Amino acid sequence: MKKRHLASLLIAGGITLAGLIYGPRALDNIRNKSSSNAELTLESKTKIYQTGPLEGRVFGDLYSKYTGIEGTVPAEVTINFEEKLDEMWNEKLNKFPNNVAQQFYEEKVKEYDVLKSEKPSLEEYISEAQEVITEVNQNLDWNKIKKLKDLSKKEEALLKKAMSKINGRDLISYALTEIMPSKEGELNKNVLEFLLKNAGREYVELIPAMHDEMTSFGPYQVTSGAVYDVLGTKQGASIINQALPEESRIPGSVSLLEGDDHHKAAYLFAINNYANLINKLNTPQKKTFENLALSKKEDLISYMATSHHLPRYAIDSYKRYLDNKTKTSYEISCGKALKLYTKKTKANMKAVYP
Asked: Could you give the CA distance from residue 65 to residue 84 in angstroms, rounded to a whole number?
């Protein structure tokens, strides 16, 4: 009798091939070993972490979702980051059922492995953001951007000058504004460093936006309004993306962003938003932008964050700021929602800059 046929008969009769070969006692040992391996895997992904500068802080809101810590932070905590990521995505999907987001969860989020996740320091993550900015600046076809955004030669030069002011620390400050709930920059910075060091960059780059129904996630909480290139329709970063060589471009869908794509998408989106601003400025406002506003770094980066959040209102607010010859901060020209973004961004910049 062939072995395969014999095995089928034995299984049908309630006897496994392993049981026949090894005997009952040996089979129990195999089962116990298999069970032990499963427990070991679970235990290896549930770890004790030192909280460092986070010790003594009080966590709630998104900090608790990211870390599982509620209330006062102890010196060490036990966390399973895979469980935390699952919990966040399940909460989002239960609140906002979305087939695309569900598919992304099944195909991408479930692949996250805390043991394999790259774990850079915050400084390394900032350096990676800077490398992306440098690469984009070196490869952009500015003449194409001029045509894509309908800019004059002077407006193109003004946009290039504005983008030359932005570096990796600014981009990460903007990320902190998007992903962290607090106006306390030092706390936001320390939480991000804790997550990068322990959960890994893949964890940070898979964190879902908890309060919208879109497939938005990652350090910049990018949505389809920022990255979208479908059937000839392009939005946000995807417009500027056309000015890069094909091999350097980001994907045309938020759900396909991975790794450095997040930094690149955020930077391309910023270029698009500054171009939109320059398009709306009158001649005196452009002069003020060039002669005064470009030297006001905190306000310039605050615009990057607010234009990600509410683009039209950010433009109106920045025009008021320019009309006032930048005598008061950009924050003063903003409404309530944008004012919070400017406060957070300035605090994050202070924390991220050495």
From this structure: 7
DSSP string of 312-327? HHHHHHHHHHHHTTTS
Q: What is the pTM of this model?
A: 0.87
* Rounded CA Rg of the chain: 25
From the centroid of its chain, how far is CA 102? 18
At residue 122, what is the residue type?
L
For residue 43, what pLDDT band results from cuts at 50, 70 and 90? low
Q: What is the DSSP string of 6-19?
A: HHHHHHHTT--HHH
**Are the CB atoms for 288 and 325 separated by under 8 Å?**
yes
Residue 348's H or E segment, with its range, is helix 336-352
**CB contact at 8 A, 190 and 354:** no
> Alpha-carbon distance 352 to 127, whole Å?
12
Place of tokens 């409404």: 335
For residue 48, list its beta bridge partners: 78
First-to-final CA distance of the chain: 76
